[in-house]
Amino acid sequence: MSLKKHVDPKLEETDKIYTPSSRKKRDDDDTDPMIELDLLSEMESSLSSIENKYPTLAEKSSLSETRTADLKAILDISQAINSSLVLDDILHKVLEHAVELLQAERGFLMLLDETGELQFKTLHNIARDRLMEDDFKISNSIANKVAHSGISVYTSDAQADEKYSKQKSIAELNLRSIMCVPLKIKEKIIGVVYLDNSTEAKVFLQSDLYLFELFAEQAAIAIENAKLYEESKRQARIDLVTEIYNRRGLFELGERELDRSKRYSRPLAAIMLDIDHFK
């Protein structure tokens, strides 16, 4: 299932692993308190820049204990999702933490593919143990809008919001509270995270939006790092000119096939051609 959109060709290509500038190496079994302070300071800066886009948020909220608690929660989540470089694991962790952090009923994480289409990567529905076809239905217009513009969308009650109440998907799914934020590396959009609730309105507050955006910044870094790590592993196994297995990839393939042959008691044969000047 895919949601079509066009990607700006001017978007910058990513060619390195991104990490917060103040992040330092830490032991697996312990966290340096100075590192946490550095990360909290960096998130504080990000939060302030987001508040500049929503000045009423800063006016209405007491930015002391509440802000500290929010930043601490984001820090804990950031450390959790950066604990792995396996892309599928990170995608599931990102979505689960987003749903838990903002108390949503459903959550969807979609990434842009090479053709510029949004692809479902993982979803979470707290009301169901088994997912059905209807669980994949969302407001496509909102997801496309966020992926195209890079601007977050929020509504506390879509049924009463003139901007969304007449949209077919929102009416049919009886969606009430909706938030959708872009996943971005610098100015490059790599996907979106979408949350909704259909049982009651005003589950999401406007003050939750900047927290969700800060969360998405950390999630995008973890996702991009995992993608780059997987690509580096792929390039280590293939010849970049011919796009076929190199020596290392060939031996890894042979080991897998040999193990499979032994496991299922099946014969195994191999043919090898050594072609001069093949490239």
What's the arrangement of secondary structure elements?
Layout: E1 2-3, H1 33-53, H2 55-60, H3 65-81, H4 87-102, E2 106-112, E3 118-125, H5 140-149, E4 153-155, H6 168-173, E5 177-185, E6 188-197, H7 206-237, H8 247-264
Antiparallel strand pairs: 1-3, 2-3, 2-6, 4-5, 5-6
Explain how this protein is built.
The chain has 279 residues and is of the alpha+beta class. Helices cover 45% and strands 14% of the residues. It has helices at residues 33-53, 55-60, 65-81, 87-102, 140-149, 168-173, 206-237, 247-264, and strands spanning 2-3, 106-112, 118-125, 153-155, 177-185, 188-197. A six-stranded antiparallel beta sheet has the order 1-3-2-6-5-4, with helices on both faces. Helix 3 (65-81) packs antiparallel against helix 4 (87-102). The two termini are 38 Å apart. The model is unreliable at 1-29 and 56-61 (pLDDT under 50).
**Largest β sheet strand count, sense and barrel closure:** 6 strands, antiparallel
Which structural class matches the secondary elements?
Answer: alpha+beta
The whole-angstrom Rg is 22 Å
Fraction in beta strands: 5-15%
Would you report the number of β strands? 6
The 3D shape can be described as elongated
Q: Helical amount among residues, as a percent range?
A: 40-55%
Distance between the termini: 38 Å
What order do the SSEs take from the amino end to the carboxyl end, as H and E?
A: EHHHHEEHEHEEHH
| Mean pLDDT across all amino acids | 77
Strand order of the largest sheet: 1-3-2-6-5-4
Q: Work out the helix count.
A: 8
pLDDT < 50 runs, ≥5 residues: 1-29, 56-61
